[in-house]
Protein: Heavy metal resistance protein
Amino acid sequence: MTRPAWLALLIVVAFIAAFAGTFLGQKLLNNGRQSETELHALLHGDLDLDAAQAAKIEAIEQRFAIRRKVLELDMRAANAHLAEAMEAEHGYGPEVTAAVDHTHHVMGEMQKETLEHLFEMRSVLRPDQAAAFDRAVAKALAPDTK
Structure:
């Protein structure tokens, strides 16, 4: 294959990968934000928190908002590293593999810290409130199973 043909193929593959990544990212992030909004509404509206609970949950949310921004920046950096590796190797080589592994690690950290955040908020709730919270979290994680 000639150099111009390789370049054209690379551009097409990069465009398809970018489009697919953007589409999937929008679907995943929007679904996550919707679930987050539903949990926020539950916490601040439906659970009838007392003033002490509301203050504790607000502090927990503020701390996590900062940490989430850091994790989101880490994810952007991991994605940029993946893009650079793909551009450099033009295939699934060792740099791309390492970049994918790094991206998965960052995603895993985000998931773990999000779960820790949820359990920290849950610890503030009374048993009846925790049961409603658990149902909302289960619905957010697996909306089509019930």
Notes: The two ends are 52 Å apart (CA to CA). The chain has one domain: 33-141. The mean pLDDT is 79.
